Amino acid sequence: MKNSPSDKNEGRQGLINILDLVVRGDDRGSLVALESEKSLPFPLKRVYYIFGTQAGVSRGFHAHHSLKQVLVCVSGSCRVLLDDGQCREDTILNSPDKGLLIEGVVWREMHDFSSDCVLLVLASDYYNENDYVRSYSEFLRLVG
């Protein structure tokens, strides 16, 4: 593993770019506010979350031509593998105050979901099937 949100050297490490999300709170609890082009480095156009992933099931297995994303594990944990065609790195997401920024044509896979995992995905654009690269061999040709 190159980096995980619990490492002391948080931030950019090769493909792994962890954003520290500002936590506000008091004796009642904590809050993280995500704001387009402020706490997120792009305009926010789509939000979705992945939950209830069955044991042993992996997700992702695609890249995007232009979409930017921030992944936040708001509950539980999962492992994210990123691949730019030359380098493969993975990290564990397990903290609601850490976001994994994914930019450029990068293959992504999500593995090892805990039973309580809720993975929030913040995207720079609306869903567009034409932006997806769903074949790993096509991805390699594209970045090659």
Describe the structure.
It is a single chain. The chain has 144 residues and is mainly beta. It has one domain: Sandwich (Jelly Rolls), CATH 2.60.120. Helix content is 6%, strand content 44%. It is built from 1 helix and 13 strands, in the order E-E-E-E-E-E-E-E-E-E-E-E-E-H. The strands form 3 sheets. It has a 6-stranded antiparallel beta sheet with strand order 1-2-10-7-12-5, with no helix packed on it. Strands 9-8-11-6-13 form a 5-stranded antiparallel beta sheet. The model is unreliable at 1-12 (pLDDT under 50).
Residue share in β-strands: 35-45%
CATH C-level name: Mainly Beta
Enumerate the strands of the largest sheet in spatial order, edge to edge or round the barrel: 1-2-10-7-12-5
- The count of DSSP E runs of length 2 or more, i.e. the number of strands, is 13
SSE order: EEEEEEEEEEEEEH
Q: Structurally, how many domains make up the residues? A: 1
Q: Superfamily at the CATH H level?
A: Jelly Rolls
Q: Give the integer mean of the pLDDT values.
A: 91
Shape: globular
Question: How would you classify the helix and strand content by structural class?
Answer: mainly beta
Instruction: Classify the fold: give the CATH topology.
Output: Jelly Rolls
Biggest sheet features: 6 strands, antiparallel
* Radius of gyration over C-alpha positions, nearest whole angstrom: 15 Å
CATH architecture assignment name: Sandwich
Helical residues, percent? under 10%
* pLDDT < 50 runs, ≥5 residues: 1-12
